[in-house]
Fold this protein.
Amino acid sequence: MKILEVDKLNLGFDCENGFRQALWDVSFSLESGSIHALVGESGCGKSISAMSILGLLPKKARVLSGIITFDGKNLLELSNKDFQHIRGKRIALIPQDPMTSLNPLFTIGYQLLEVIRIHQSLTGKEAYQKAVEALEAVQIPSAKERMQAYPHELSGGMKQRAIIAMALACNAEIIIADEPTTALDVTIQAQIMDLINEIKNEKNTSVLLITHDLALVREQADFVSVMYAGRIVESAPAKEFFDNPRHPYSIALLNSIPENRGRILDTISGQPPSIQQDISGCRFHPRCKSAMKICSEKVPDNYGISKSHFSACFMNKGNV
Ligand code: SF4
């Protein structure tokens, strides 16, 4: 069952030199109890897509068109007041850097209780019990003592667990995990991802995993959407994607993973375009080894490889 659907989202920013478009026809959906990975290089539009879902777009952002459907409502039409019943309560965010998300002046317990009071309408002993349970659920040892700790007294992994506890305490139906392990070392990364997976399985939570880490996606995701320069260029069930990637950008990304020792790694020449650059046709064409004449002239459609696998590349035209 689809719990969230982003349909043809077009969005941009009012810059000093005029309006610059950042997302083109971005469409994807999230199935209940699944992990959908949104993959791509920095600046490709992953995080701004997530912020659109949470109603946290910067002031200079302007939505041109599109619909984001959750629980029968278009999130793009909600007022800030209406969003308070959804953001943090039904759709929660696990940010990249837990240190900048926790207030250093307040204890973990204070911040957790505040979330529970606002979103669960619990107070007193009930709220305290819920907060302790949430810390225990994310395997923070001596949870009652940690309630008194300030963020600087916890390690990076523990801080990220505390953030996940806030999402758990509100029984969020959707967790948006924006590069949730980037700021952590490798062992802790694995523990945090295992924890997110456990929560998904136990509570049937849906997870939108935003990442540039394809190894992580291979291990964790059920479905993959690859973004390049503001567009989704390939989307597929994870197994199908890794067995049979079809877009030249996806193939180049996979070939640049340092998996097999002794193999010279492929690189993708050039840089992703900035928002200020105008690129005609396929936005990947200046870096694509397979580019043809048509690629700089026309924007490729999303061509079907199978019922649930799509690639926006002229080479995949006429597959189904
Ligand atoms: Fe490369 Fe052309 Fe396909 Fe774009 S449409 S990925 S430039 S072959």
About this structure: Residues 186-203 form the longest helix (18 residues). The first strand starts at residue 2 and ends at 15. The pocket of iron/sulfur cluster is lined by residues 247-248, 282, 284-285, 288, 290-292, 295, 300, 313-315 (CB under 6 Å). Residues 224 and 241 are 7 Å apart (CA to CA).
